[in-house]
From TrEMBL:
Source organism: Pseudomonas silesiensis
InterPro entries named in the record: DNA-bd_HTH_TetR-type_CS, Homeodomain-like_sf, HTH-type_TetR-like_transc_reg, HTH_TetR, Tet_transcr_reg_TetR-rel_C_sf, TetR_C_Proteobacteria
One of the Pfam families matching this protein, by short name: TetR_N
Gene3D superfamilies tied to this protein: Homeodomain-like, Tetracycline Repressor, domain 2
Name of protein: TetR family transcriptional regulator
Matching PANTHER family: HTH-TYPE TRANSCRIPTIONAL REGULATOR RUTR (PTHR30055), TRANSCRIPTIONAL REGULATOR TETR FAMILY (PTHR30055:SF224)
SUPFAM superfamilies on file: Homeodomain-like, Tetracyclin repressor-like, C-terminal domain
Keyword annotations of the record: DNA-binding, Transcription, Transcription regulation
Domain annotation HTH tetR-type: ranges: 9-69
UniProt GO molecular function: DNA-binding transcription factor activity; transcription cis-regulatory region binding
Record-annotated DNA-binding residue ranges: 32-51
Length: 202
């Protein structure tokens, strides 16, 4: 990669980080491309060279949030391993992602903007729903193997993820609480597993 390309990439990253900061501080509607350019330390023309509109810049922020979600490792069902051990790995990966400051920043921006303009949220929510499919597929496979009760897999997946998010996502997003310590993450996961397996394991 040449030096000018690296500079372009750095400017693009600076614009995105500036946009996240401005959207968080002022919301989508009040934030201007002028202010984003000033915060990023680049010209307004440079911002528009990378992002033709504020909507496209916001879409890129949502794409980065989506990229963080999809970076979560896939875990296929293993008939030879204990259910608890397999689920623990998946849930700990989710909690670690939800404890990442960049992920939380992006989630705050996306949620704040979409509350005021629900149509912006529709595609993001649909794509996030698709992302949850990995746990749903795992549950369906465990059911087919006769190890989980035949409850609706989507419901069961949403149920256990809701338990995690009530401790490790919504309090941080809505009230600014600190992310969970490693010890607290483990406590939340083990408690969620106790409840889930007591309800659903055959």
């Amino acid at each position: 990669m040449t030096a000018p390309q690296r500079l372009t990439d750095r400017k693009r990253a600076a614009i995105i980080q500036a946009a996240i900061a401005e959207f968080r501080a002022n919301g989508f509607d009040i934030t201007s491309m002028d202010k984003i350019a000033a915060t990023a330390g680049v010209s307004k023309r440079t911002v528009y060279n990378h992002f033709p509109s504020k909507e496209e810049l916001f879409a890129e922020i949502l794409n980065q949030l989506w990229a963080r979600l999809t970076a979560e490792p896939e875990t296929s069902y293993r008939p030879d391993l204990p259910l608890r051990e397999q689920m623990r790995r998946m849930l700990m990966a989710k909690l670690q992602m939800m404890s990442d400051d960049n992920f939380l920043d992006l989630a705050r921006v996306a949620i704040a903007a979409t509350i005021h303009s629900p149509e912006r949220a529709q595609n993001m929510v649909a794509r996030m729903g698709e992302r949850e499919e990995s746990l749903t597929l795992w549950i369906r496979a465990a059911q087919a193997d006769g190890r989980l009760k035949p409850v609706e897999p989507e419901f069961a997946a949403q149920q256990i993820q809701g338990m995690l998010k009530s401790f490790a996502f919504w309090p941080q997003i809505s009230m600014g609480l600190p992310t969970l310590s490693a010890e607290r993450q483990s406590t939340v996961v083990e408690s969620a597993l106790d409840m889930f397996l007591a309800c659903h394991q055959v």
